[in-house]
Amino acid sequence: MDKLLNENLPIYMQIMDKIRAAIVSGELAAGAKVASVRELAEDFGVNPNTMQRALAELEREGLLISERTTGRFVTTDTEIIDQVRKEAAERIVKEFLQKMKELGFSKEQIEEFFREIDMNTDGMVEAM
Fold first, then answer.
1. Contact (CB, 8 A) for 102 and 89
2. Residues of the chain with pLDDT > 70: what percent?
């Protein structure tokens, strides 16, 4: 998980985004134990209170579950994880479409762009 932070956004929100991405990508598997607040704060180079806030927000979203005596775990509810993954994908697509419009592409040109990429998908998948 990338732990570099940007100065333009609140730190706890950036941490949430990074942990959320690790969960939806499977890097942090459903049911996996999450490191302690202190360990994560040290890894990210932030104050434990900042990390606690990020983790508490992820609990409110349902992505993390806190067990009183054993710590925090990634939810095992795959529907929640799938929903968060879908919402993230939709945000990315909307941002992409907005950027393409800002570059002057029409709806038809954007569609053509995707058709061209679709024809070259094999090369793209191998590059990933």
1. no
2. 87
Handedness of CA 73, 76, 82, 84 (dihedral sign): negative
- Size of the chain, expressed as the number of residues it contains: 128
C-beta separation of 64 from 73 below 8 A: yes
> pTM for this structure?
0.76
- Output the six-digit token pair for 73: 């775990």
CA angle 92, 24, 34 (to 5 degrees): 135
Single out the residue of 8, 17, 13 nearest to residue 87, CA to CA: 17
Cβ atoms < 10 Å from Cβ of 11 = 18
CA dihedral 35, 38, 39, 41 (to 10 degrees): 110
